[in-house]
Design goal:
GO terms for molecular function: lipoate synthase activity. By secondary structure, the protein is α/β, with parallel strands linked by helices. It contains 11 helices and 8 strands. The chain has a single domain, classed as Aldolase class I (TIM Barrel, Alpha-Beta Barrel). Helix 4 packs parallel to helix 5.
């Protein structure tokens, strides 16, 4: 068995230096702030913010901006959450219409303080988007809802096209970086959705690399996912947000991303995105279109 990979003070690679059209980004930022909306692009300090904002696409984060958990890999603020904004779903739908989005991603912070753990706001947002944008496909990226199946049932019944819940990392590293979440709970969420959702709803998950995982652990995670018939897998590089976050172990070389892609496709995933800048909602529209056109 290989040992955990560790590198002292990894040197930042050139691929992290991205360029984009600042005017387009400013225009998108103004529109979103005018509607009092948050995006995971900005809240999580995503390296693809420039490209996505510049191309007129975004992933909306609801129920925020504060999260009730404090996962060590994450840059989203942790703190006392605000009351649920019942007008937020309408604003997301209005922004989707104004931006002309044909595919929209809706995610959220964890809301362990709410009786429904945030599930009802997902439902309201999906319904609002469908009402104003009947031809727009919808992807949700949900928290684990503490594994509560009644919460999952609500979101499934609302009928998103893609149901995404991130595993984030391999089993051994999960307790080191995820607060209150477990590897098995996330597997249960994905398994339950796959078993109870319509056949037309795709189930998706994503992981980060560079946390100290080994090849064997990544392949075991792939096998665990295929055992429950998960459709899509995204694999990207962990970028340490700040000095208090989980320490980056390595910048994973492109060769390993390519090998993981080959191994994942061999295992039968319908779609795999494996590259340093890949994030779970990055190019989600293109991902869905690629599978639908197969």
């Amino acid at each position: 068995m290989k040992t955990e990979r560790e590198t002292t003070a990894p040197v930042k690679p050139n691929w992290l230096k991205v360029t984009y059209d600042q005017k387009k980004v400013d225009k998108m930022t103004d529109l979103l702030s005018g509607l009092n909306l948050n995006t995971v692009c900005a809240e999580a300090n995503c390296p693809n913010l420039g490209e996505c904002f510049g191309s007129g696409s975004a992933s909306f984060i609801i129920l925020g901006p504060n999260c009730t958990r404090a996962c060590r890999f994450c840059d989203i603020p942790h703190g006392h959450p605000k009351a649920v904004d019942l007008l937020e779903p309408l604003r997301v739908a209005q922004a989707t219409k104004k931006l002309g989005l044909t595919h929209v991603v809706v995610t959220s912070v964890d809301r362990d303080d709410l009786p429904d753990l945030g599930a009802d706001q997902f439902v309201r947002t999906i319904n609002a988007i469908k009402k104003l944008n009947p031809n727009t496909t919808i992807e949700v990226l949900t928290p684990d809802f503490q594994g509560h199946e009644d919460c999952l049932d609500k979101v499934i019944a609302a009928g998103p096209d893609v149901f995404n819940h991130n595993m984030e990392t391999v089993r051994s590293i999960t307790p080191k970086v995820r607060n209150r979440a477990t590897y098995d709970t996330s597997l249960h969420v994905l398994k339950y959705v796959k078993e109870h959702a319509p056949k037309t709803m795709y189930v998706k998950t994503g992981i980060m690399l560079g946390l100290g995982e080994t090849d064997d652990e990544v392949y075991q995670l792939m096998d665990d996912l295929r055992a429950i018939d998960v459709d899509f897998l995204t694999i990207g590089q962990y970028v340490q947000p700040g000095p208090k976050n989980y320490t980056l172990r390595e910048w994973v070389p492109m060769k390993r991303y390519q090998e993981y892609y080959k191994q994942a496709m061999k295992r039968g995933f319908k779609f795999v995105a494996s590259s340093p800048l890949v994030r779970s909602s990055y190019k989600a529209k293109e991902e869905l279109e690629a599978v639908e056109n197969q």
